[in-house]
Amino acid sequence: MVDPNQALRFRESADGVKAVGGDPQAAAKLGDMLNAEVIVVGSAVAQENDVSSIKGLAGTGVKSASAVVSLKAFNVSTREILAAKSANGAMVNVSPIVAGNKAIEKAIHALLASQGGFFESIVENWRRSAADGQNFVVEVSGVDEFSQIRVLRDIIATKATKVEQRSYQKPLLIFEVTRPGTAEDLAGVLDALQIEGQKLSVEGLNGNIINISVTKASE
Question: Domain ranges in the chain?
Fold first, then answer.
């Protein structure tokens, strides 16, 4: 359960605005605050349409509105986008407000459709994770030479299904690693690995983020 007042305070904060806009770091802050594994953020916008030139509607007093509803789901631990979808809706009514609300409702129904809908995308993502493993962020500090990147990627790849380099800003190298099991399992197999006279040491673990340092093997 989420305290509505707490959620409202976050939504109106600077990070809340960023989260609704799709910023994964801001969404993760919300997830950490609420102790959640998955955060869903979104927006719904409706606007009145001009019907003055539409035959059958012009001059009748009937109002038309269209709406767009967008949702994104984030894995709080990895900052990964699990699903991102948008849907449109349009309705008519004598009241533009009612037409707008009905258009939003129609868009939501389309977005949450059982076939190809938003939640089905999340479930499909989880199915892939079950087959290939979860995504983990491995942050490696102490990488002072560009040539070390390939060596580190290759050695980590021996313990994973897939390894992709996310960024490198000396001395910090960040990988996204896909592997069955938990973050603790991955940390366990990486800790104390020997690489060309150096070793990996796990320095921290936060959710699916693993912090590792590279030091001389004799240290």
Answer: 4-129, 133-216
CATH code of 133-216, in short, is 3.30.70
Residue 55 identity (one-letter amino acid) = K
Say if CB 125 and CB 38 are below 8 A apart: no
- How big is the chain, counted in residues? 219
Report the predicted TM-score, pTM, of the whole model to 2 decimal places.
0.63
Q: What is the pLDDT of residues 130-142, one digit of tens each?
A: 777 888 999 999 9
**Is 158 exposed, middle or buried (CB count within 10 Å of its CB: 0-12, 13-18, 19+)?**
exposed
Residue 2 pLDDT greater than 60, yes or no: no
Q: Which conformational region is residue 159 in: left (phi greater than 0), alpha (psi within -120 to 50 degrees), or beta?
A: alpha
Q: Under CATH, which number does the domain 4-129 receive?
A: 3.40.50
